[in-house]
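REQUEST
  id: r-88c1
  op: predict_structure
  target: DnaJ domain
  payload:
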Amino acid sequence: MMGEEAAPTGPPNRELYALLNLSPEASDEEIRKAYRQWAQVYHPDKIQSPQMKEVATENFQRICEAYEILSDETKRLIYDLYGMEGLTSGLELGPRLSKPDEIKEELERIKRRNEEAKKMAHFQPTGSILFNLSVPDFLGGDGIMRGMVMASQVQSQLSKDDAIAIGGNLAANEKSGGGIATAILRRQISPVSSIEFVASTGLQSLIGMQTTRQLTIHSTATINISKSLSDGSINLTNTWTRQLSETSSGNIELALGMRSAITVGWKKRDENVSAAGEFKIESGALGASARYTRKLSSKSHGRIVGRIGRYVLLTILSNLMYDVQEDRNHFLSCLYMCGAIIVLILLWIYFFNLFSNALEIEVGGGRKISEFSTVRMMYTIGIKGIFWKLELHRGSQKLIVPILLSSHLAPAFATGAFIVPTSLYFLLKKFVVKPYLRKREKQKALENMEKTWGQVGEARAKAEKAQQLLQTVATRKRNRQVETDGLIVTKALYGDPKAIERRDEGGVEGVDSGVIDVTVPMNFLVSDSGQLKLHEGVKKSGIMGFCDPCPGQPKQLYVAYTYHSQTFEVTVGDYEELSIPQEGQ
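RESPONSE
  id: r-88c1
  status: 200
  body:
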């Protein structure tokens, strides 16, 4: 029998079953029997050597912990569903937690509570800096900087229900500047409602209050009222939000005051796609905007954004953008499609310029360059001109640099402003970025390999010491099987399948061999009736006396044994069942 393992993954939350060599469906009696068997071997009082006593104590504690969890019905259910995380996260055990759904709901509640506690322990700073640059002004001798905007906010949790946020904005252009300072006090009134008090001073001095309440499990309402301290005007805003599906939501906002308006919005977000749209009606004008972002890989994404004002609703060219993304590996096709989009945009702007004073489309993408940092470049074309926009996002901080290239919509210049950076991106990615990343990944792989060898060496040393404690009992069981001509394991190897295939060539004993000899624990696991069984769905590296000799790689178990004076061999995958002797032997 030959077992092939497709991938180095398998059923989760089975380590404790492997430790006691139990099936996940084991009965209470089987759990007690396995515990007694292992406890007799590793009880520290039975070990004389001080060095081995320490090893026995460590393994005995692991056995006791496994027995304590698996022998308790509720703890075992939590472990089967969520592993050790569920047991260490603070689940309140009791009679009411008797069903998987109830335990899942309680675990999610605990996770939310822990996340909230984590937030309370830290300040949460956010901020953004925007530099507005102009190439035409620079070429005209007026300087490249058109203006700058800085915004910053620090939020701190005062208590479980109270939070405060203090922030400010500073803006400056060629002729003037100003700022706003804002303070917000938020209180959680109940699990479904909260209230905020806002005060700001500067260019827009006002005081206000906002309250939010969850009306149903799928809908929320927010009411905001504010009074301007400069002109005395009062503004009232009502917002209703409803969850439309697991990944989408919609909202309606009614604003009354100096700028009364009605806004209808929609958002959708799943693993690969993020989209949003908004339609706004206000005094004397209409406006709409839409955004579509698609994940291209684990580190990169593409985005298209559209905005329009006055009387025309913008329809995003999402189908064309999708075709570009699907064909992104073909450079010429991508350039062709992008050029077609630019031509359509120019014609569109020329036509709608007769009807609208605000039309703008952005096309671009971004890439994650580290765990916390993302860069993005957008190409913007609209009535206000042609822009490049560079963005750097790191954590909750943003740096945004819009660069005005031209105030005139010349077709040749607009197309070149898109094609040139796109071509440079593909060329740099192919000839500079990818070779560098491959070199860095290779270096990291070598460093990880060295680190892994150290971890494997420690795990192998622990497994060998555990085998020494099993040796006496394993030898006694083996001699008993010799007397009855029963099951005798002559050789057992666990680890890399390729290394196991080369077992006759030697060299399978070193730390870097990818294989560990498990003949001793396999003889220990032979029952008095001459049977040996390893259970399906349980990773064999968790068995006492075993270890993982090649982390991240597929593994197999090879066993050579004699039964009734005949020799047999069997190989099984890491999660496959082993039962010897087989029927008919």
